[in-house]
Structures are given as C-alpha cells and as structure tokens.
Amino acid sequence: MFKILLAVDGSENAMRAVQHAIRRASSAKDQYQVELVNVQHPLHGSVAGFINVEQVKQYHHEEGMKVLAGAADALKAAGVPFAQHLFVGQPAEVIARFAAEQKCDEIMVGTRGLSALGGLLVGSVASRIIHLANAPVVLVK
C-alpha cells in the first residue's frame, strides 16, 4: 500500500493538492492510503496566558476541523481511504516527524502562488518540509 501524508492548510493550493492526490489514487484506490494532516500554529504566549487550556484546545480543534472538512469531503466523495490528524506546533517539523512515524512513502503539500522571484523560495513551510523530511515531497501549485 502506498501511504501519502497530505498536509492541508485551508488554502486554494492545498485543495489543488487534494485534487491531485485524488487523481493519482483513482487508478489504485485499494492500494492508496492518505494521512490527511492539519497543523495549527500555537497561540502566541501572551494570548495563551489569558485563556484557559481547555479553551485553547477547543479553539485549535475547531479551527483544524474547519480546515480538514473540505479535504475530507473531497476524499470521501472520491472513495479514497484516509485518516485525518490534527496537531498543534510548527507545521514543517510536525509534518516531517509524523510522516516518518507513519512510514509515509510521500508527502504532498500545496504551495503558495508566488511570483517568479518568490517562487525560488517555494514558501517557508514547504521549503522546511523538503529539508526535514526523509520521504519525497510533492509540491502542488
């Protein structure tokens, strides 16, 4: 079975990555597993100091589920097997670590729509994932 970590952040490019994963999986549905991941950024220290821990957890859960919903609906509709995961932390580090733990064959992420010059930088999260991950990284624009 080919296991892919598909990281989504709610952006248009992330949804293009979802569609790309669906197209690739369509010919091998039973041999393709998607680990659908969203990583929420931790709240800034000064903000978190005024909100109790349960409220912070609830906030991250609600925001993460909103981000995962569109991708999960698309994968379900296409019949692609997936499991969804929600984390809080630094996205690139969390994605690379989780991909290694799950023994993913590939990591797929959407990139930001950058200008020609900005395109050289790929995007800070995508660039970090490329440097940290052991698995191949597919960038979808």
Mean pLDDT: 88
Strand pairing plus helix content: what structural class?
alpha/beta
The order of strands across the largest sheet is: 3-2-1-4-5
- How many helices? The count is 6
Overall helicity: 40-55%
Report what the structure shows.
The protein has 141 residues and is of the alpha/beta class. The protein has helices at residues 12-25, 45-48, 53-78, 91-101, 116-119, 124-132, and strands at residues 2-7, 32-40, 82-88, 106-110, 137-140. The chain has a single domain (2-140), classed as HUPs (Rossmann fold, 3-Layer(aba) Sandwich), CATH 3.40.50. It has 6 helices and 5 strands, in the order E-H-E-H-H-E-H-E-H-H-E. The chain has a 5-stranded parallel β-sheet with strand order 3-2-1-4-5, with helices on both faces. Helix 1 (12-25) crosses helix 3 (53-78) and helix 4 (91-101) runs parallel beside helix 6 (124-132). The two termini are 26 Å apart. 28% of the residues are buried.
